[in-house]
Amino acid sequence: MDYLPIFLNLKNEPCLIVGGGQVAARKAEILQHAGGQVSVLAPDFHDALLKLGESGSMTLLSKRFHSQDVCGFKLIVAATDDIDLNAHVAEAAKTHNIPVNVVDQPALCTFIFPAIIDRSPIIAAVSSGGASPVLARILRMRIESLIPPAYGRLAKIAAKFRTRVKQAIKESHVRRKFWENVLSGTVAELVFAGREEQAAEHLDQLIRAESQEKDGLRLGMVYLVGAGPGDPDLLTIRALRLMQEADVVVYDRLVSPEILQLVRRDAEKIYAGKQRNQHTLPQAQINRLLADLAKSGKRVLRLKGGDPFIFGRGGEEIETLMTEGVLFQVIPGITAASGCAAYAGIPLTHRDYAQSCMFLTGHMKDGRLIDIDWNQLSRPGQTLVFYMGLQGLEEICSRLIQHGCPADLPAALVQQGTTQHQLVLTGTLKTLPQTVNSSDVKAPTLLIIGNVVKLREKFAWFRPHGDA
Ligand SMILES: C[S@@+](CC[C@H](N)C(=O)[O-])C[C@H]1O[C@@H](n2cnc3c(N)ncnc32)[C@H](O)[C@@H]1O
C-alpha cells in the first residue's frame, strides 16, 4: 500500500491554496465543503475565486508566495502552473511538517486527493495513488451507481438508533447480525423509497422484538419491478439492486433469461408467466402469492416485462398488497413502446409528423377487439402503438382504413424489440398484414402506426448480431 487512506477533520481548520486559477478554485471548493477555513494566495484570481472571495466564504491573499506564508496552516495545496513555484511551496510546507498536495505532481505530495463518493455521513474515497486519476474517477462513477443517493439518510437513521440497539442487544455478534439485516433489508428500502418515518417505526418494532427475544419478526416487502423490454442493459440501477437483494422472485414470461440471470443466485424463482389465453397462474393467485410471501418475511421481487403500470396489471397486484397491509414499492421500467421504438429508429413523436402518441391494447375477446374508439384513432398527427396487437393486426388495419385513415399510412411490427432477435417489418395499413402473414414472426411483437414510421429509413441504427 503506497498511501494510507485516512479521513481528516478539517472543520474550521485553516487551509492554504497557492494558485489563482480554475484548478485552485476546484480544490478550494472541496476544502470548503469539508468545513475548512480556506485562504487562496496568488497575484491574480480566476472569476470563480473572486466570487467566492466576495461572498466572504474564503480569504483571497493577493500577493506572491513566500516560504513563511505556510505558517499557521494545517493543510497546503499548491495549484499553480509554475513547476518551480509548486516545488517551492511543497518544500516550505514539508519544512514546517504541514501536509501538502501539489496538483499533478505526486512525487512532491505528502497527501493526495482521492475521487470522492459523498453520501455524508458515509464517504468513500478512491485513489490510484497518482498512477491514473482518470481510472480512479471511472471507478468512482461505477461505485456511485451502486450506492443509492439516500445512503446518507440511512446512516443518519442508524446513528439515531445506535445507542438503543446497543442497550437492547448486549451480545456484539447478535448486534452485528441485527444491523446487517436492518441495513440491507426492508428498513433500508423504506428509507430509499423516501418513507423514513415508516422505516423508523419498523426499526423500532425490530428492536422491541429482539429485546424480548422474539424470533421470526422479519419484515417482508414486495418490489414490483419493471424489467424493461428485453435488453438487460436497459434495467434501471434500482431494479438491478433489488434483483440482487430479493429472497424470492416471481417472474413473467416476458422477462428474458439474460435478465433472470442477474437475480441473486440463491433466490427462489417462481414462474408466473402468462401466455395469451393460457395463464400459468391466475392473476388472483399471483396477488395472493405476493402478499403471502411478503407476510412470511421475504423480500419478494415481482419482476415484470416493460413497465409494471403499462398493460402490466401492476395496479391489481398492489391493490391486494394495500388491502393486506403489505409493504411494497414500484420501480418503473422502460415500456415496450419506448424500447422498441428507440431500437427500431422510430421516434414516437416528431414535430413534423406526430404531436401525440397513444398506447393501446390489441387484446381480443371472442375473436374481436374490445372497447376501441376508432374515430378517435383515425385522427391525423398521432402515433398509435398497439401492445398485443399481432392477433388483431388485420382487423386493426382495416378498421382504421374504414374510419378514414389513408391506406398508405406507414406501419411497423417490431418483433422482440431491443433483443438480439429484433426484427422490424414495415409497410402500410394496406400491406403490413400480408407482409406479416408471410413471415415467421415470433412473440412478443409491438405494432406502431403513423407517419413517424417513415423516419426508420433514416434513423435505423440498431443491428442485432447476425443481421446483415
Ligand atoms: C402484457 S403486455 C406487457 C407490457 C409491459 N408491461 C410493457 O410495459 O412493455 C405484453 C405485450 O407487450 C409487448 N412487448 C413487450 N416486450 C416486447 C418486446 N421486447 N418487443 C415487442 N413487443 C413487446 C407485446 O405487445 C406483448 O404482447
Highlighted features:
binds S-adenosylmethionine; five-stranded parallel β-sheet; alpha/beta; Rossmann fold; Cobalt-precorrin-4 Transmethylase, domain 1; 17 helices; 468 residues; 21 strands
What's the topology here?
Layout: E1 14-18, H1 22-33, E2 37-42, H2 47-54, E3 59-62, E4 75-78, H3 83-95, E5 100-102, E6 115-119, E7 122-126, H4 133-146, H5 151-168, H6 172-183, H7 186-192, H8 196-211, E8 221-226, H9 237-245, E9 248-251, H10 257-260, E10 268-271, E11 274-275, E12 278-279, H11 283-295, E13 299-304, H12 314-323, E14 328-331, H13 336-344, E15 356-361, E16 364-365, E17 368-369, H14 374-377, E18 382-387, H15 393-402, E19 410-415, E20 423-428, H16 432-437, E21 445-449, H17 456-459
Parallel strand pairs: 1-2, 1-4, 2-3, 4-5, 8-13, 8-14, 9-10, 9-13, 15-18
Antiparallel strand pairs: 6-7, 11-12, 16-17, 18-21, 19-20, 19-21
Helix pairs in contact: 5-6, 5-8, 7-8, 11-12
The structure holds S-adenosylmethionine.
